Amino acid sequence: MDAALLPCGEQAVLVELSGTDAAMAAAAEIGRLRETGADPWRRLVDVVPGARTVLVTFDHPLAGSAVPQAIRDALAAMRVEVAVGPAGTLVVPCRYDGPDLGVVAELTGLSVAGVVDAHTSAVWRVAFGGFAPGFAYLVGGPSLLHVPRREVPRASVPAGAVGLAGDYTGIYPRSSPGGWRLIGSTDLVLWDAERRPPALLTPGTDVRFEAVP
Q1: Are residues 149 and 184 in the same domain?
Q2: Is residue 85 part of a domain?
Q3: From CA 163, how far away is CA 165, in angstroms rounded?
């Protein structure tokens, strides 16, 4: 797997990859190596995937260490495959009542019912988190649901709003500005500081949306 490694402070490396699938696969592989408890992975603190990057943090300065080469070796030995997610799939009950549902139907050439069917038929995968605590970028849906963001973002999107943007779907964990195409809403709590982990949707989680009244 082609990758560029960049130092990020004294104790972390930012791995730049070709795309989201590669980043998800790399994060899963590095996480697997941490579970082995072998050097140098036993001193790994965190693995944070992004759209095209993975931040790998250790508990010691990396200058002169074998860590960068170990990361290169691990990536060189693997193929760009997204690892199988944990057992079970998180089901998200969703009311397909979003203000952009009709617009998405027009953009995709589907009926409103077709948009709902395409969204609920897919098994989505949490690729990475960002934007706001608890917000997850989900991939794996059909390409026919790839739609552009709104030209003018909304000043306020309600918590629980389900949207589409590019090749992602996502759920707003709290009220905030946003430019995604809103197709539905859910009552699930995406972020709870008292929960461990606080985020309901963590990288690698499989998600299926279920239409409810």
Answers
A1: yes
A2: no
A3: 7
Q: Are residues 103 and 205 in the same domain?
A: yes
pTM of the model: 0.84
- Whether residue 82 lies inside any domain: the answer is no
Nearest to 40 by CA among 22, 20, 26, 61: 61
Cβ 129 vs Cβ 205: under 8 Å: no
C-beta separation of 202 from 147 below 8 A: no
Cα–Cα distance between 83 and 86 in angstroms, integer? Answer: 9
CATH number of the domain residue 140 falls in: 2.40.100.10
Bridge partners (DSSP) listed for residue 76: none
> Does 81 map to a domain?
no
DSSP letters, 113-169, are HHHHHHHHHS-EEEEEE-SSTT-EEEE---GGG-BPPPSS-EEEE-TTEEEEEBTEE
For residue range 129-171, list pLDDT tens digits in order: 988 999 999 999 999 999 999 999 999 999 999 999 999 999 9
Which domain range does residue 202 map to?
90-211
Q: How many CB atoms lie within 10 A of CB 178?
A: 23
